[in-house]
Design goal:
- The protein is about 35% helix and about 20% strand.
- The protein is an alpha/beta fold.
- The strands form 3 sheets. The chain has a 7-stranded parallel β-sheet, sandwiched between helices. A 7-stranded mixed β-sheet has the order 13-11-10-9-7-8-16, with helices on both faces.
- The N and C termini lie far apart (about 45 Å).
Length: about 375
């Protein structure tokens, strides 16, 4: 047996089964030290490796959301070696296709399954009911079950810090966001980016172009060019490909990488990358399952836990700006600063958070409004 199988969506949907991918004649996607010592099937006697499955919305590639998750998977392999055997399935659409893949993984002996996008929530919850002896972990959602947890990263903290940089670096005072799907997670990031910028430059305005996809390089590039055409001189994205930062590089404006380090895709344009580190959570969860201490619940990690942060600062950033970002990062970690602390107003000027108050997690998870300074409307 192999420790990791790279299964295309086409192969999965054609066979509707992962069992064939465990056949001794099937070529592995990758090999590792664990492969040699994880030859026993999952159905073997005690001592067999824990089979852990990861289902990805996009291709692994070399940057972005899915790439960041796969780095976390590799950290699991490195830490636990022969105790685990990981499988990943990439480019699986949300909906019925995802449910088929979850069921195939469970049928094939995977006792811990991670679904790594918001749109997998309903499919994973249905599958969890059908496989009560399997532990399910859903990223960025809000539903749980006796054998299903959800986990998330406070990406809005990284977006806020990126906004601080953007507010100092913009000349036009116009910021832009290449946005994916209009869910609270993405709206939070747009708002946090704006608030970070306004904390150093109150005259900032932000506009978003929605592509309604997590990964679509062509649409992402088009959205970036549209924003640049509107006078935006600093871009951030909540999408998976490096197309926006590549467009920024071509047009001579600034941009931020998202989810992983994207500095190599636009060295001049790149101000920093707001990254997610899934490794600590994946290693903790796998360790809990191996130890028999796993519990369902709700986990939301951020700067404090090392789950998000900014990396690869542009050498052109002033030293005092880097110090300011570090100061604000420290304040967020110590709870002295909350990106969504009052007074806060929405687009219409109505008070949403009073002075001296801050939004709690439930309010953040339900966010469906733009802060003052964000232009345009949220798509229905």
């Amino acid at each position: 047996m192999f420790d990791a199988f790279k299964l295309s969506a086409l192969a999965v949907l054609a066979s509707l089964s992962l069992a064939a991918c465990g056949d001794k004649n099937t070529a592995p996607a990758s090999t590792s030290a664990a492969a040699a010592s994880a030859s026993a099937p999952a159905s073997a006697a005690a001592g067999a490796p824990l089979k852990v499955g990861f289902v990805y919305i996009g291709p692994v590639g070399s940057a972005g959301w899915t790439y960041a998750h796969d780095l976390g998977r590799k950290e699991v392999e490195e830490k636990f070696g022969a105790q685990v055997k990981t499988t990943f399935v990439e480019s699986i659409p949300e909906g019925a296709d995802a449910e088929r893949v979850f069921r195939d993984l469970a049928d094939n002996g995977h006792k811990l399954i991670f679904g790594t996008t918001f749109g997998y929530m309903e499919a994973m919850q249905k599958t969890a009911k059908a496989f009560p002896d399997v532990k399910f972990e859903h990223a960025t959602g809000y539903k749980t079950a006796p054998n299903m947890n959800f986990y998330d990263s406070r990406t809005y903290e990284g977006a806020y810090l990126a906004g601080v940089i953007a507010g100092k670096m913009t000349k036009s005072k116009k910021l832009g966001v290449v946005a994916s799907i209009p869910i609270p997670e993405v709206i939070r990031n747009i708002n946090a980016f704006t608030l970070g910028a306004q904390s150093v430059n109150p005259a900032i305005s932000t506009r978003a172009v929605w592509v309604n996809k997590w990964f679509d390089p062509g649409k992402e590039r088009e959205a970036a060019l549209t924003l640049i055409g509107q006078g935006v001189d600093v871009l951030i994205q909540n999408t998976d490909s490096p197309a926006p930062i590549q467009a920024a590089e071509e047009k001579g404006v600034f941009a931020f990488g998202w989810d992983s380090d994207m500095s190599k895709f636009g060295p001049r344009a790149h101000l920093a990358s707001a990254v997610i580190n899934w490794g600590p959570y994946y290693k903790k969860t796998v360790g809990d399952v191996l130890a028999g201490t796993w519990q369902p619940g709700k986990v939301w990690w951020g700067l404090k836990e090392g789950a998000v942060g900014l990396v690869s600062f542009n050498a052109a950033l002033p030293a005092d700006l880097k110090q300011l970002v570090e100061q604000k990062s420290t304040e967020i970690k110590s709870d002295k600063l909350h990106p969504f602390q009052g007074p806060l107003q929405d687009q219409s000027g109505a008070e949403k958070v009073a002075a001296g108050k801050q939004m709690n997690d439930e309010e953040l998870r339900a966010m469906n409004w733009y802060v003052k300074g964000v232009e345009g409307a949220i798509p229905k």
